[in-house]
Each structure stands twice: as C-alpha cells, then as structure tokens.
Amino acid sequence: MFIRGYSTKISNLKGVGNSAKESYASLGVKTYGDLLLLTPRDREDRSKLVNLEELPKVFYETIQINTFVIAKSHSFFGAFSKNGRTLKITVESYYGNRRLELLCFGRNFLQKIIKTDKIYYLYASVSSHNGILQASSFELIEVKDINNPPYPFGQILPLYPLKGSLTQKLIKKNIIEVLSQSIKFEDELPKYIINELSLLSFDEAIRAFHFPKNKKELFEARKTLAFSELFYMQIIARKDLKTITTNEKIRSIPSTLELKLISNLPFKLTDDQLSALKEIRLDLDKSGAMSRMLQGDVGAGKTLVAWASALHEISKNHQVAFMAPTELLANQHAQNAAELLEPLGITIALLTGSVSKKQRKPLLEGLKSGQIQLLIGTHALFSNNVEFKNLKYIIIDEQHRFGVNQREKLLSKGKNPNILMMSATPIPRSLALTVFGDLNISTIKNLPSGRKPIITHLVSEKSRTRMYNAIGVEFNRGHQAYFVYPRIDDSGPQELRDVTNMFEFLKKQYPNIPSALLHSKIDDNEKIEILNKFKNNEISYLVSTSVIEVGIDVPNATCIIIEHADIFGLSALHQLRGRVGRSQLQSYSFLVFDNNISEIGKERLKVMRETNDGFIIAEKDLSLRGPGDILGIKQSGFIKLHFASLVNDLEMIKIARKYCDKILLNDSTFINVENRIIKRVLEEANPYETEEEEL
Length: 695
Ligand code: ADP
Ligand code: MG
Known about the structure:
Layout: H1 18-26, H2 32-36, E1 42-45, E2 63-77, E3 86-93, E4 99-104, H3 110-113, E5 119-129, E6 132-142, E7 156-159, H4 168-181, H5 191-196, H6 202-210, H7 215-238, H8 256-264, H9 271-285, E8 291-296, H10 302-314, E9 319-323, H11 327-341, E10 348-351, H12 357-369, E11 374-377, E12 391-396, H13 404-411, E13 418-423, H14 429-435, E14 441-444, E15 455-459, H15 464-476, E16 480-484, H16 499-509, E17 515-518, H17 524-535, E18 541-544, E19 557-562, H18 570-577, E20 588-592, H19 599-610, H20 614-625, H21 650-666, H22 676-684
Helix pairs in contact: 6-7, 7-21, 8-10, 9-10, 11-17, 14-21, 19-20
Bound molecules: adenosine-5'-diphosphate and magnesium ion.
Magnesium ion (MG) binds at residues 302-303, 397, 424, 551.
C-alpha cells in the first residue's frame, strides 16, 4: 500500500470522536494517509543528553536541559495563601553535584509522587537566579534502570499543528496507532532512484519522519519524502509536454511576415523581446516539439513576441491557436491581432463562449479546411467540435490561469504541437524550474525604453481627499484611471467599499467626467463595448472589481486606485498595478488601506511600495504565503507541499528534474519495468489534486 492511498477513515482510531474528527478535518486530515502526511510544525530534540554540569556558571536566558537527576529534598516557599505554600523539589545531577530547584506552582501533588533518593529523567527549561538554578517548567519521569531510560528520552518529538480539540498527545497516539496497524508501506519511487540517491525506503521514511531516532535519520526521512514530492510534481506538470530531443544545430531565419510585422511597428522591439523571439524561433524550427515558457513582467510586451512567432509558423502553412483566460482579454487580443496581422494578409478568427451557433459554423469549417490561420479565443478553443487542419503551435496567455488538464485538452487538437506559455505573474524561479527547466524559459527582463517606474502611494483614510484631487489633475491632462474595489455591491457581511456605491460617489466627485461600471455580472458583450470606449478615451475612468486584473492594455490610463488593497494578495496587486505604466506617461498607483490593517497586509503593501519588479514580488509572495496559496499554482495542479520547500530545496528540484527528463524522454508512458511504479502511483496515490477551478 502507498502512504497516500491509505484511505481508512480516521474515525476508526481510538479517541477520535466527532469533535476530534472535525478538528482533524480543518487540518485537511480525513484518512490514515492524510494523518501520516501531517507535518510537525516543530520538534523537541530530546535525543542528546544536556546535563546540569554543562550549564555555565552565570547565564541570563533559559536553557533546555535533558538529563537525569536524583531527588534530594522537598520544601515549601512563599506566603501562606488559600492554597497553601508552593512545593519546591531540590534535585541533584546524576552526573555530578550541581543542584537545581524545581518550583511546583500548582503542582503540590508532586510531593507524594517524587520520592527522595530516586532517579528521574528531567526535561526542564532552566534559569539562573544569583547562581541558584531554578525551573518551573519541567517534566519528571521515574527511571527504573539508568541503562534503559524511559520514553521519551533519546527521542526527537514531533509537535503537530493543533486545531480545535486536538492535543499533541492525541495526535501522537493516533499516528502511533496507524503506524502499528500498518503493514509495510510500498516505495513510491523507482528502485534505481532510491538506490542512486541513497534514499530510505518509504516505510522507513514515514515512520522516521514522525518518530526519528536521531537528527540524521530525520534528515534522511525528509529527504526521501521531499524528493518524491518534487519528482511527482514535475512528472505531473510535464508529462503532457514534449521536450526537444535533438541537439540539432540550426540557423533559423526569420520569415518575411515576421520582418514585415516588426518593421510596421511604430517602435523598436527591445533587445529582450528580440532574443526571446529568437529562442522561440530556434525551437520552432527544430524537429521536436517546443514547450517553452515566456515570462516577462506586466507590460513587458509579451504579446508582440507571440504574434511574431505565430507568423513564423504561419509562414510554414501551420495553424496557430492563441488562448486567453477571459472573454475580455481574448477580445482585446483579437482586435490587436486584427490591426497588426490582417494587413499582412493573415486570416484570423475569434472563438469564445459567446460566439453564436450560427457564427460558429463557418468558423469551424474554416479551421478544418485550414483557411483560418490564427484562432484566438478562450477555453472554448478546446470544445469537442473544434477541429484543426494542421495545428502546430499553441500559445497560452496568462498560463497560470489554466490547469494542466485544460492545457492537455488543447494539445490534443494538434499533432505534437509546439506550445508557448506566457505568464505575467513571474513564477518564482524554483517553480519555473520544476516545469520548464533552465533552457526552456525565455525572459523579457527589461520594459520597453522610456517607461517611467510607476509611483506607488500608500493611502490612509486621512489622505483620501488629497488622492481624489491628484486624480482630478490627471483627468484634466486627458489621462484615464481605474478605480478598483473588492465587491460588486454592499450585500454580504463585510464592511467593504463596493463598485456600485462608489460609482455613484465618484460621479459626484468628478461631475462631467464620463465613467463606467465594470464587473463580472455585466454581460460579456457589454463589457467588451465598455472596454472599447475606454480604449478610445470616450470614458475617462472605470469603476471595477478585479476583473480588470489580467492583460488589459490601455496605455493612456495613468492611475489605478485599489481600495482595501491590504486584503488583496501580492500577485493580484502587482497584476492590478500593471494596468498602468504602459506608455511613456508617468503613472501612479494608490493603494488605499483600512485602519485595522493586518500585519501581513502591512507587509504586502510595504513590498508594493518598495518595488515594481514582479520577480522580487513573486519571491516575496512565496515566502509570505507559502507555495500552496500562490495564485495559479493550485490551478496548475500543484498543491501544498508537505515535505519539500520551493524556497530551500532548489538543488533537489534540479536533481528531480534530471530524472524526470530522462524518464519522459525514454519511457514517457512508464511501461518499462523499472518505471512502472510511477504509473501505479499516479493511478492509486496521485500526490496532487487534479480538481481545477472552472474558469
Ligand atoms: P504584457 O507583457 O503585459 O502582456 P503587452 O504585450 O500587453 O504586455 O504590452 C504592453 C504595451 O507595451 C502594449 O501597449 C504594447 O503595444 C507596448 N509595447 C510592446 N513592446 C514595446 C516596445 N518594444 N516599445 C514600446 N512599446 C511596446
Ligand atoms: Mg499580456
């Protein structure tokens, strides 16, 4: 049996009634397997002797000791109170003659239990008062045979996260029960990997992870479990992606179409854009299929690189599909493509959920016949009835918004198609490496020249009026703004500003300035119309929820006001802020925070004020929230890691990647005997949820 496949319900355990069951559930623990995967939040090291003789003569902190003592005498101290005086037990080191006073506040009953001249195991946190050693927080256990000291001496004790009615004692007892009932757990990695990396068996590893004999064993256990986690993360994320297999040396020549597109632009592509384009073009011309990530900060100009590379494929008579996460964005891209690519004679079509049946028919025919060269759309692109003649290149915008399954469905529409995934939420390097590896990431690091860094103001209630005035000045200059609020209206429990009410308020604040409301309940076609008007500067400001978060590109907008900014995550804030600063105009973001802002909220806003660099923000996000919560990771089929750390285990990620590369290259369906275990783990104990959010 695999650890994760151990599906017996925890209610079968002794001491787990309804209340413990609920408390466990809030930790995500429902089965025996879940319980075994519960990671201690800390550990108490009782493995090594720390006796009284080791303590310095004078010290000012408290020091944890883990030793054996002989009880010497009982006495009482303090004034008589209702409960009498407090017991003091004086003990002497078993190894010498240093003495320690144990102050038994509220534990006078120990007088009867702790007997003088007997030996005890003592775990205590000791302080020094004028040279006298004292402890009030301690644990004493009688020692019958000093050569065979009582539990838990010599152990490293796990301290689990607690919720509700759970106690350390209960969790420990439950885990011990599960482990003692279990037959040997099966290894979840191929034998040769376990051998080559000197990993433990999974049975040893899971037992030692909870109750290690010593630090070394704990280290080995964690290494084994963490490696497996990182290995499967990569297998799952990459098994549908083809990697380029050949080391062909080729010289790739840009097509006439690409060159035309570039020379028609009113600006020059940046060096980063050009080198990304070159990397992509080289991959496209090799015989294997490309799977490449194009990352670049918000506003860095990824879309143009995508269009140019699409033209490279179209020149070879291949079809290209471009997928965006929302109707609004797909629409914007289609308009953009129409302006830039149609003059070059390219046939483009847009397919989203709101394209009617009637319009759909000729579109589907055009795809099948190959007449349509570039199809832009939402996830409607992989509906069942969509068939291509020769789909060879798939571009996914804002890839972190899509799940692995969705990507897989689109890939199945072509024969071994190339894939380019674009992300404006730079994923932390460690995570990018797990999926793409060093060689398959193209990065646009620098923004187009002439861009001024966005100036970010943190705004408290007091400075609200000043903020409105500053934005008024921008309107007078003909510039535009986004006002963002977290809610659509004021229904619901929280006291948060909402777009509906603020829309009315702002109309009074800025009379005669045209504005519009934008949120998810507005009909898609209307949304598109509003956005078009905004693009044409017929509307000066949008009052919006975070629906404008991704991809929207209106260079004349110079202000974004985000209210209750402290409740947004870092990557969402960065994305939202990236709606401005898209031209040579000076842009501003105003992050308005609540009076009762949380500590983590403060931390996030500080990061936002200090940097505009999405890569730094992504790393911060990872350390503030942990990988499980980062926008997009869950949707991409990654979930919280139990054992591995994306921050600290970079080396392990690389090693796992090497093995994955080899396996996916030579045995991608895991049919070789030595790799068959992978197939079984994926089927029986898949470490990652495959549920994905519907878009
Ligand atoms: P993102 O990387 O966020 O998807 P876009 O592709 O939407 O960015 O580009 C942002 C804006 O920058 C667009 O208006 C685009 O036309 C413009 N742009 C792209 N490349 C350049 C460049 N080299 N010089 C000037 N402006 C550019
Ligand atoms: Mg974009």
